[in-house]
Amino acid sequence: MTTPITIGVSSCLFGKRVRYDGGHKHDRYITDTLGAFFRFLPVCPEVECGLPVPRESMRLEEKEGTVRLVTTKSCIDHTERMRRWCAEKVAELAAEDLCGFIFKKGSPSSGLFGVKVHRPGMKAKRGRGLFAEAVTSRFPLLPVEEAERLRDPELRESFIVRVLAYRRWKELVAGGTTPGRLEAFHTVHRLLLMAHSPEHCRELGRLAARANGVPPEELFARYEALFMKALARRATVRKHTHVLQQLAGCLGKRLTPEERAEVAGVIGEYHDRHVPLVVPVTLLRDYARKCGEEQLLGQLYLTPTPTELLLKHV
Predict the structure, then answer these.
(1) Share of the chain above pLDDT 90, in %
(2) How would you class 288 by CB atoms within 10 Å of its CB: exposed for 0-12, middle for 13-18, buried for 19 or more?
(3) 244, 284 Cβ separation under 8 angstroms
(4) Which end of the chain has the lower number of beta carbons within 10 A, N or C?
(5) Residue 211 CB neighbours (<10 A)
(6) What confidence score (pLDDT) does residue 56 get?
């Protein structure tokens, strides 16, 4: 049985009544849709560091150049309590084999982007919740996102692609860090990488090709950092169209004139946003199978994320 892919998630998004007012922010997409494919590890920094439910609300404040976690009315400073807990928690999470984390927007502990940091007599600046900061500092390559941003189809697809890729990378490393395994890994990911960042794909290809000249630990560390950076780049319609045309060119004369016209037409429809990406990908996969193109069929680009998670448009 395949080991489930583990993703951390803010407990309130999982339906747990842990918010300061005793409520939750249950996100049905996370539990009902993503929950069919991933194992979730709920985390609530405030409750787990020892604060009660309900409790006074808190906010981030900048004092003497440092960011503090302070209650909004009584001005009790919980910064050190939270930081101690964060240090212990990220150490625990290192053993959980996390492949991603979904945070709660705006939270002074778990907000990932644009959390208000109040400053006396000045306009608030934007920062990151203390726990979210601890997680991203300890696991800089871990795919992370906010639940609210997952409503954007492109951001959602990007997150899922990175989570699944990160899992495959972990499996590669667990199986042995040999140059041959890295080169094979790069080969099957090449078109997927091209759809995100052609520049990084070429650099990764050069790195994998000269693998024998670099110590394995250094080689794999460099490849991993660049690999995840590449997939963090947005996959655009233009870049996808280029990859699809490459695939069509590989099939070339093995297709009849009518089939080549069909493929070109479907790619054009995708380029003009009349059909989703899954349509040309499925057509090209079917023709690759018909032509016995095993090398193309080995490309992960032709076997995307589970159908239930695919977007209508990229």
Answers:
(1) 84
(2) buried
(3) yes
(4) N
(5) 19
(6) 97
**Taking the complete model, does pTM exceed 0.90, yes or no?**
yes
How many C-alpha atoms does 160 have within 13 Å on its Cβ side?
23
Residue 18 has pLDDT above 90, yes or no: yes
Do 183 and 216 form a contact (C-beta atoms < 8 A)?
no
* Rounded Cα–Cα distance for residues 228 and 42 (Å): 24
- The pLDDT tens digits of the residues spanning 21-67 come to 999 999 999 999 899 889 999 999 999 999 999 999 999 999 988 99
Joined tokens for residue 142: 């871990």
* Backbone φ/ψ region at 200: left (φ over 0), alpha (ψ -120 to 50), beta: alpha
Judged against a pLDDT cut of 50, whether residue 2 lies above it is answered with yes
pLDDT in tens, 259-271: 999 999 999 999 9
The count of C-alpha atoms lying within 13 angstroms of the C-alpha of 124, restricted to the half-sphere facing its C-beta, is: 11
Looking at residue 309, the DSSP 8-state letter turns out to be G
* Residue 97 contacts residue 38 (beta carbons within 8 Å): no
How far apart (Å, rounded) are the C-alpha atoms in residues 9 and 37?
14
Report yes or no: 102 and 41 within 8 Å, Cβ to Cβ.
no
Contact 42, 25 (CB under 8 A): no
Residues paired with 127 in a beta bridge: 115
Beta bridge partners of 60: 69, 117
d(CA 65, CA 87): 21
For residue 272, which amino acid is it? D
What is the CA 11 to chain-centroid distance, rounded? 19
**What is the C-alpha separation between 162 and 59, in angstroms, rounded?**
31
Name the band, by pLDDT with cuts 50, 70 and 90, for residue 157. Answer: confident
Q: What is the mean pLDDT of the chain?
A: 93
Residue 245 has pLDDT above 90, yes or no: yes
Residue labelled with tokens 């429809």: 269
- The identity of residue 243, as a single letter, is V
